[in-house]
Structure formats: C-alpha cells, structure tokens
Amino acid sequence: MHSSLHDVLITPAEMAAIDLAAAQSGIDSFLLMRRAGLAVAAAVLRLFPQAQRYVVLCGPGNNGGDGYVAASALAECGANVAVFAFGDPAAALSGDADRARQLWDGAIDPLASLVPHLGDVVVDALFGAGLSRDLPEQVVQVIERINAKGVPVIAVDLPSGVDGRTGQIRRAAFAASHTITFMARKPGHLLLPGRSLSGALDVVDIGIPARIVQAQGGGWRLNTPALWSDQASRLDASTHKFRRGHLVVFSGGAQATGAARLSAAAGLAAGAGLVTVASPKSALDINAAQLTAVMLREIDDRQDLEHWLRDTRLGAFVLGPGFGVGDRACDFALQLCDRALVLDADGITSFQERRSELFERLAVAAGRVVMTPHEGEFARLFPEIARDEKLSKIEKAQAAARISHATIVYKGADTVIAGADGKVAVNANAPPSLATAGSGDVLAGIVGAHLAQGMPAFEAAAAGVWRHGAAGARAGPGLTAETLVTSIPPLG
C-alpha cells in the first residue's frame, strides 16, 4: 500500500470511480486486474502452501475476474486448482473479467456443485466490496456449507456477503481467515460485523497512483495519530499547570460519585494540568475522602455554575458520568455550550425530550462540544437516524454531527468519530476488554483533557478514542477502569 493511503477509507462507489479514473488516465485496466489476481495467488501460497486443493469461487463481475487470474497463477505454480462459478460465466462476464476467464484453461464447475473437503483452501472471489443487495439462496447455501466445514477462506477484496459500505451481512457471509484488498481499506473492513469476518487484512498496491485515489475519496479515515498529532500539545520548559489546561468534571449526588472521579483521574493522567470535581453539597464529603491530586468545588445549582464560569482559566468540562438524568443536567449543559464540553452518559439522555433546544443552542454557540453516545444513547438522542437501516454507522454519525452541530463519538467496538464539518474517522485499536464498567467514563475524561489543552473538538475526540484503545491494549485482559487510567499512553 502507498504510504499516503495508509489511513484512507474508500467506499465501494468511490473505488469504482477510482478504477474508471485510472482507466481514463491511460492505465491498462486489465493490467490492474492481473496485478490484483497475482497478489491474491501469492498470498494464498504464502499463507497455505500445504493445501491439498485450492478452490477458487468466481462471481459475475470484476471480483470474479480477479479470481480467474489467481486460479491461472496458482495452476502455473503446479497447484491443484478447482474453479467454481456462480451463474453462466460466458454469459455474465464482459470486458477484463471475461478476458481473465478465457485465459483460464481449466474446467469451470457450477457453484452449487461444490463439496468442500478438509485440506481445501477457498479463494472467495464471488462479490467483493461492491455487494449492496442480499445474496441469492444458492450462494447462501454454499457459504453456509463452507463455513460449517471450517476450511480456510481467503477473501478477495471483502468476504462475500458483507456489504462494503456498511459492514452489514447480506443474509450470509464467509468468515475469512484473511482478506486481500486493493489500494485502500473499505468501510466494511472496519465496521462490525464485517470487521470480525475479514480476518487478517492485507492492503495491496496494484499501481493506481495515490493522487487518483485521494482525488476520488470522500475524506473518511482510519483513526491513527497521523490525524491529530499536529494538534497535540508539546510541553516545554516554561509549561505550567494552567497552560496544560484546567478540566472540570461534574459529580452526581451522594449515591453516584464514582463515575465522575474516574473521569477526573483519567483527565489528570491524560495530561490536564489541573482537574476539579464539581460536586453538589450532598456529595462533598464522599468526594473529599477519595480525592488527592484532583481538586474539589461545591457547585449545587445553576447560579453557582454561572458565578464560577467567570473564571476564564476553566478550560473544559465533562458532564454526564453518574450525574443523573433530568432538567439540572440540561440546564448545566446549556450554560456550557459556548465552552469546551464533553457531554456523556446522563448528560446525553437528559436531552431526549429537549433535543431541539440543545441543537439550536449548539448551532449558535462558539464552544467545542463533543458528545459520546453508545448505541442506546444514540437512539435516544437521534431516533430517526438510528432507525434508518440504509445508513452505515459512519453515515449515522455524520448525520448526527450535522444536525447537532457537535462532534459525535458513536461508541462501540467500531467507534466512529464524526465532526460537524464532515470529518470522519473509524477507530480500530480497541480490544474487547474495554467493554467493562467505567470504561466510558475514562474515555470522557481523556477527551476532556484534550479539550482543556486547546485541541479542536474533532482531533480531541479522535485522539481520546485512540489513546483509550491503546490503554486497553496496555492494560490487557481482565482490565478494570482503574487499571485503564494508569495505562493511558503519552499523547505526543
């Protein structure tokens, strides 16, 4: 893969436009197909050199053409190759794919006749990333037969049955051990459940210039430090605690203080110079008994907050973890919309019936606001978007950011970060062990620390999600929210 494309995500529609633009620029399209097929064959031989039979499944489009090239290359190496096609390949194929078929000089059997055996390795070149409809019954049966047998599957572009735009399963899908795709990742490689079905992913450069790929791409990215490293604050000898930012985390009542303290501890560990827990009077003693480096301030009502906000050194705020659902959360949040704010958990749910008020306030406010909903909270705040099954998780996050005028962190194993300006990043470094109590509170604190240090909202959120995932990997299996805090890696 070209280094400049390492973080790029390309939709299937964009990839089709890239292929067309490459051909119009004078690049031989069959040469690109040949390079793709040869890359697949090389990967198959490298990964499974002892296979008794290589079973190549060819579909009715260019993905099938890649399969025919791979089959020819495998046969030329002396391998035992069997080709099975969906439909009538002589009638269904045209252009480069038909040319590739004609260069295959072996038998082509009907897909339905395939009986997988132990010792087989399956090369899935049926549909690839362009699939956007449900699979026909015949293909579903073959996929289920192969998955049940447990033989290795190497997918060409994307496991057949996975929608390349949404990552959703179209009735059935191969569970691939490896996937070979070309030029750049597709959303279906990162969005669940597609990500869990793709296995190990190899992105192969087949010779399309990076400028063509970048010109046709819509700007979606894999979340890596390259997205936000330029915005990360660098400490120098003159740095003091106020320059590193003052983060405020709001605590709930006496029975719900732990979540705020976790966020506060994470904010301090993530780099905020000062962190204060803003606590109602009823919880002051409980919080005071548990805090050391984190400061404490009594904030009971809207008037207390309004008075405190005159202090311009307060850099960012986290509202929601353990705070309680209700009008008090809404009133506090609306006061903070023109500051840097992470609205999380109860803070989000509190606006279920007051969404328009929040969105209208954010539309005119000058703050940097990040909202961090999990799936249930997202459905409560954006019900119409959540119900739209035509949208991918990326597109849902984008739509939510657009109507709310905030940066959205749509949480999950495939967290999507979407900015109000259209920026998108999909995260892929989070281990399953992050699904534990308090993990989201830690994330809110990390993002809050970034905002307190002056990072723009999108970059603060993307960096927070990435560091949260990296902390989970450092903490290892069996992590708790407390060990997660101590495992947060450096920002710079």
From TrEMBL:
Catalytic activity: (6S)-NADHX + ADP = AMP + phosphate + NADH + H(+); (6S)-NADPHX + ADP = AMP + phosphate + NADPH + H(+); (6R)-NADHX = (6S)-NADHX; (6R)-NADPHX = (6S)-NADPHX
A GO biological process held by the record: nicotinamide nucleotide metabolic process
Entry keywords, A to Z: ATP-binding, Isomerase, Lyase, Metal-binding, Multifunctional enzyme, NAD, NADP, Nucleotide-binding, Potassium
Named cofactor requirement(s): K(+); Mg(2+)
Location of the YjeF N-terminal domain: 15-214
InterPro entries (UniProt xref): Carbohydrate_kinase_pred_CS, CARKD, Nnr, Ribokinase-like, YjeF_N_dom, YjeF_N_dom_sf
NCBIfam families hit by this protein: yjeF_cterm, yjeF_nterm
The organism of origin for this protein: Ensifer canadensis
Domain of life: Bacteria
Entry keyword annotation includes GTP-binding: no
UniProt name for this protein: Bifunctional NAD(P)H-hydrate repair enzyme
Chain positions recorded as AMP binding sites: K411, G412, A413, D414, T415, G440
Binding site for K(+): N63, D124, S160
